[in-house]
Amino acid sequence: MATSPLTTGTEPAARSGPETGLALYRWMVVIRQFEKRAYDLFLQNLVKGTSHLSLGQEAVAAGFGVAMRPDDWTFATYRGHAHTIVRGVPLTPIMAELLGRDNGLLRGKGGSMHLTSVAHGMMGSYAIVGAHLPVAVGAAWSAAYRKSGQVAVCFFGDGATNIGAFHEALNLAVVWNLPVVFVCENNLYMEYTPIGAVTAVPRPAADRAPAYGLPPVAIDGNDPEVVHQTALAALERARSGGGPSLIEAVTYRHGGHSRADPATYRPKEEVADWLARDPVPAYRARLVGAGVPEDELQRVEAEAKEAVDRATEEAKAGPPPDPGLVTADLWADGGSSWRS
User: Fold this and answer.
1) What domains are defined for the chain?
2) What is the DSSP letter of 5?
3) Which of 154, 179, 185, 269 has the fewest CB atoms within 10 Å of its CB?
4) Residues 100 and 73: beta-carbon distance below 8 Å
């Protein structure tokens, strides 16, 4: 597996410094704490609808979140809590949205699968598999047209690589040389089916990249520093006119596809092996080995817990939305009347 920024088989140019390392760890811990709390609230029947957690996949979101500019754009799947958090969206409205409260990010209308905050460059979590890839291409075209230097970063699962929109988006992005970074979060399973059981190549994203003139990049998606270095290289390539990149970040979700899925279809040995490679404690151990003081890491962890606790209480205190909101914000003028 490649471990380099957009180059197969070589090491990253440099390891992340202490400040960047702490930033990566901070986001990973916040995501982990938030999603564990979301799981607890789901079991209490407080989360409205289902939820798709990225426990075990935190390094991908953190690595890109630290590397991106504030004005860059994120496009995510329905497993989008982590990507929303790393763009700096406050935790309270995210949590409240999961609970379907009026103080939610979308006033309770979107729920877990549709988190969006344009003000933070979080351009949506998309419930339809692969639907957001062409949208990200359109955003990248806008950036190129305006010469803004912005980059669209589009995250999707391994299952989306077998969707027509994946191939259409890649092709057009290369043809038009657009500033877009496609990131396949390959957690080895689509919904309940192993990606290898329905895909003609071993690496669903990386092995298809050469068909579109792109290098085959596959990285350890559980290593936040590798993800971060690769993200920096891809973002710089896009900003400097080098065109799109396709990155396959191999990772693993600790739980099932959604909270309704016990994931009994996965071999116990496989699950145990990946749990032993949990990115959060692994990176913590690396930071300690690099000389980061234990009390500094404990401070980061305590602050994350405090933030999630506060967000939970503020979200739970929010009122239910007014039923009238059902017909609001459906058209550009805010109304709901049909137009032809």
Assistant:
1) 18-90+127-160+168-312 (3.40.50.970)
2) S
3) 269
4) no
